[in-house]
Amino acid sequence: MNHARQVKVWDPLVRTFHWSLVVLFTLAYVTGDDAAAVHIWSGYIVLALLLLRVLWGLIGTRHARFSDFVYPVTFILNYAKDMLLGRAKRYLGHNPLGGAMIVIMLVTLVATCVTGIAAQRVDQPSVALTPAQPAIAMIDLFSAAWADDDRFEGREARTHDKEARKRNKLLRETHEFFANLMLLLVVIHIGGVLLGSLMHRENLVRAMLNGRKRAEASSEI
User: Fold this and answer.
1) Is 98 within 8 Å of 204 (Cβ atoms)?
2) Which of the residues 98, 115, 124, 183 could staple to 94 if both were Cys, CB 3.0 to 4.6 A apart?
3) Verdict on whether the full-model pTM lies above 0.70
4) Closest to 188 (Cα-Cα) out of 91, 80, 63
């Protein structure tokens, strides 16, 4: 196995995205209110990475594209069944179950970032967004609209209004829900990686580090 021919699977952008996300999500999760600036900026960078990954999923290299690992639900369920029976096929890129997990994690991360930034903008409306954050400006519009159902004389008055505080609390609770859901998905993802590594006798963690996996005729499915 160690002498099997190796082929390039994961391009540098995919690998950089993956490990940057690991670091940034961990940093954001463990900081929270204890280091608000670190937490907030980690969220900003994660959202920027997510937007880049979505774009790369459309125009990137073969195995980075969504078209390579997004399958119908019935296909995913059949693969899950085969995995439980120990007969799942090996894929050079993401397998159907892994691909589904990636999509779910991306959506969950976007929801985590959007609700977190919206809550922060409602809670601190005087904090200006920089020109380097054009994508965040759209979330600012969302958060402002969320807090602006009633008409008051100024934005500060709206922020401290009882209804605005309730909405902000709901945003924060929703943000925490998605963050905790993401943590659960990470645990499941790690379990899937370990199981896949054992089933197909290959180190999937190392593959995401160096971008290479062994080539087999049966892997090109």
Assistant:
1) no
2) 98
3) yes
4) 80
Closest CA to 167 of 208, 122, 217: 122
Q: How many CB atoms lie within 10 A of CB 124?
A: 11
Element at 219 (helix H, strand E): none
Annotate 1-56 with three-state secondary structure: CCCCCEEECCCHHHHHHHHHHHHHHHHHHHHHHHHHHHHHHHHHHHHHHHHHHHHH
The full DSSP string for 84-110 is HTT-PPP-SS--HHHHHHHHHHHHHHH
- Type of residue found at 219: S
In angstroms, rounded to a whole number, what is the distance separating the alpha carbons of residues 124 and 29?
20
Q: Give the tens place of pLDDT for each residue, 87-134.
A: 889 999 999 999 999 999 999 999 999 998 888 766 655 444 443 444
